[in-house]
């Protein structure tokens, strides 16, 4: 049995839609920092950064990404991290959700820019709901059991709509966007950021 903090904090990322009874989305993390690229390991698909405090940060970018937009060792970056969590009732007979990794590239005032976004999706079956303690238990497709404590109003409102036996699709999105500082390029033609072909993200 895995006991997990489903949402220990965070703010509401999007207002509840008219279909709020069936879905919810929250912002778990949003921070900005500066960093220097230490290494790019194409064999392990890892990007190693050193932030402004000297801490090392490793980012896994998945086998579907052939190369990272514009990046090279020694680049100075301005970085924005975003992490969100979404949940919605699965439609009967709908296919299993697929995890994906996407990348995009472009320019911001001539500075090369890149985005890496990982969407980790899984389907879960609700096994118990306790509205009073904001707690829900569920089993994911891999057979693992979880207990989650919901700490945000959006998810607590969503919890009130659930019952034992409901099937829910959960999506965790982790995104890093960066701008290479000190490097200015004037494109010869307009460059539009375009996502790379999606492929299952490594778990």
List keywords for this structure.
single chain, 203 residues, mainly beta, eleven-stranded mixed β-sheet, 3% helix, disordered N terminus
Sequence-ordered SSE layout with sheet pairings:
Layout: E1 2-7, E2 11-12, E3 23-41, E4 46-51, E5 56-60, E6 76-89, E7 100-108, E8 111-130, E9 135-140, E10 145-150, H1 153-159, E11 167-181
Parallel strand pairs: 1-10
Antiparallel strand pairs: 2-3, 3-4, 3-6, 4-5, 6-11, 7-8, 8-9, 8-11, 9-10
Give the gist of this structure:
This protein has 203 residues and is mainly beta.
Strand elements, count: 11
Structural class: mainly beta
Query: What are the secondary-structure elements, in order, as H or E?
Result: EEEEEEEEEEHE
Shape: elongated
* Rg over C-alpha atoms, rounded to the nearest angstrom: 19 Å
Uncertain residue segments:
1-21, 189-203
Distance between the termini: 19 Å
Mean pLDDT: 82
Characterize the biggest β-sheet: 11 strands, mixed
- What percentage of residues falls in helices of 4 or more residues? under 10%
Structure annotation, total helices? 1
Strand content: over 45%
Oligomer: single chain
Structural write-up:
This protein is mostly beta strands and 203 residues long. It is built from 1 helix and 11 strands. The chain has one helix at residues 153-159; strands at residues 2-7, 11-12, 23-41, 46-51, 56-60, 76-89, 100-108, 111-130, 135-140, 145-150, 167-181. Strands 1, 2, 3, 4, 5, 6, 7, 8, 9, 10 and 11 form an 11-stranded mixed sheet that branches. It is elongated and about 55 Å long. The model is unreliable at 1-21 and 189-203 (pLDDT under 50).
């Amino acid at each position: 049995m895995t006991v997990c903090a489903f949402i220990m904090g965070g703010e509401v990322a999007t207002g509840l839609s008219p279909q709020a009874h069936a879905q919810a989305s929250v912002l778990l993390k949003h921070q900005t920092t500066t960093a220097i690229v230490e290494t790019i390991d194409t064999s392990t698909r890892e990007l190693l950064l050193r932030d402004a405090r000297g801490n090392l940060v490793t980012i896994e970018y998945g086998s579907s990404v052939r190369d990272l937009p514009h990046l090279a060792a020694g680049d100075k970056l301005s970085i924005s991290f975003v992490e969100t969590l979404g949940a919605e009732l699965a439609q009967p007979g709908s296919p299993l959700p697929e995890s994906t990794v996407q990348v995009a590239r472009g320019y911001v005032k001539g500075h090369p820019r890149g985005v890496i976004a990982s969407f980790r999706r899984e389907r879960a079956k609700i096994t118990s709901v306790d509205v009073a303690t904001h707690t829900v238990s569920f089993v994911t497709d891999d057979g693992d059991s979880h207990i989650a404590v919901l700490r945000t109003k959006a998810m607590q409102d969503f919890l009130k709509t659930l019952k034992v036996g409901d099937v829910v699709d959960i999506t965790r999105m982790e995104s890093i966007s960066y701008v290479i500082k000190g490097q200015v390029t004037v494109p010869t033609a307009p460059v539009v950021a375009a996502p790379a072909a999606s492929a299952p993200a490594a778990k």
